[in-house]
Every structure is written in C-alpha cells, then in structure tokens.
Design goal:
Length: 227
C-alpha cells in the first residue's frame, strides 16, 4: 500500500548501507504477524483459559491493541518513502507493501473482535442485527472505522505485482487513499478513547509530519520540472 516515489539523488546512502542489514527482512516479515497473532492468542487465553493477561476486560483491551497496531503498521508503511528519500536506503521500498498488508491483517482482526466478541453479533432474527445497525448508523467513530476498513480492502487486494502491472498509473492514484485511511484511523482512535488522548494526539502529529514531507517533496518535484 502507498504511492511509489524515488529516493534522493546525488548522494550515497547513509552509513554506506546499499543493502538491508542482515536479518532486517526477516524481522519485518515475521514481527508484525507475530504481534497480531500474539494479541489474538492472549485474548483467547483470557476468554477460554481463565488467564488475565489483558486485564479485567480482555475483549476491549485486545480490540484496542489490534486497532493501535493497525495505526502503527500503517504509519510504518507511510514512513518508508520519506525515510528512503532522506537516507538513500532504497532497499526499504520492498517492505512498504508488506507493512501495509500487515496493517490490513491487524484491522481485519480488530473488526472481527469488535463484531463477534464486543458487539456479540449473531446472525439471527433476534440477536445482533439491531445493535449492529445502531453502531453503523448512529456512532460516528464506528462509521469512520468501517469506512477506513472498506477503503483498505481494495488496497490490499491490489497489492500484488500483477495488479500493479495491470493498473499502471491508476495503481498509484488508488494507493494514495492510504493517507485518507490514516486520517480516518487516527480520528477513529481519538473518538474511541474516553480519557487519555495522548497517543491519538501523538499519532496525529506524526501524520501531520508525513503530510508535510509529502507536500514539500511534491513542491520540489514541480520546481525541478519548471527549472
């Protein structure tokens, strides 16, 4: 996920790193799913085996952790392009879509935990539908979260080399939606937090920096074309 952009020109990479450090790709590939599945495993242990690793309300705690890791992984994906431009570490580019897909994995589990464990949705004439309809129509932060999930779905589906070739320039335009998704995610996070807004506010500041870098880079490219 995320639009492609070239690295910096006219300078060598920081620390002379023309290739990824040994083990870096393995960490990026394994750590995010281990974290996501670890949260799910701990949540299930609390529910079915009597542990209390997530506190007195494991469903809410697990749901929030999965939502937070969605944002962290999405931001990690968005940070690849500016970090690549600043450092000249072009090998980072191959990990951008991987991180974006792991963000999608986290948000899918976040949604599943909310739907079936928090909302306790049951496909029934009597149970679940009314509560689901109320949440999806009258609770703004749920609406924002669902919108973000729906927008992430086509990005995940098209995050393959075959789809990149097939869509051409349209792929890059489509994947710019990732910035809108990030905004929706941060607002959803802030609205779902009842007391301490520290982390959502910090996430909003990080997102503002990423937007600022992207705007500055676009202006530089336009100035270079004019020159």
């Amino acid at each position: 996920m995320g639009a492609r952009s070239g690295g910096r020109a006219g300078a060598g990479p920081w620390l002379g790193l023309t290739q990824a450090p040994r083990g870096f790709a393995l960490v990026v590939t394994l750590a995010p799913p281990l974290i996501v599945f670890g949260i799910v495993t701990v949540l299930l242990a609390d529910l079915f085996w009597g542990t209390r690793l997530l506190g007195t309300d494991p469903v809410k705690a697990g749901e929030h952790l999965l939502g937070e890791w969605t944002i962290y992984l999405l931001f990690a994906s968005l940070t690849i392009t500016p970090l690549r431009g600043i450092t000249g570490w072009n090998w980072l580019a191959r990990h951008r879509r991987t991180l974006g897909l792991y963000a999608f994995l986290a948000v899918v589990f976040h949604f599943v935990v909310w739907l079936f464990l928090d909302l306790q949705f049951v496909v029934s004439e009597y149970v679940g539908w009314a509560t689901l309809e109320t949440d999806l129509t009258k609770r703004p932060y749920i609406i924002l979260g669902m919108t973000g999930l729906l927008l992430m779905t086509p990005l995940a589906i098209t995050s393959t080399q075959g789809m990149i070739r097939r869509l051409g320039r349209r792929w890059q335009r489509l994947h710019r939606l990732v910035y809108l998704i990030a905004v929706l995610g941060v607002v959803h996070w802030g609205m779902s937090v009842k007391k301490d807004l520290t982390e959502p506010v910090l996430a909003a500041l990080v997102l503002a920096v990423l937007f600022g870098w992207r705007i500055a880079a676009a202006r530089r490219r336009r100035a270079e074309r004019v020159a």
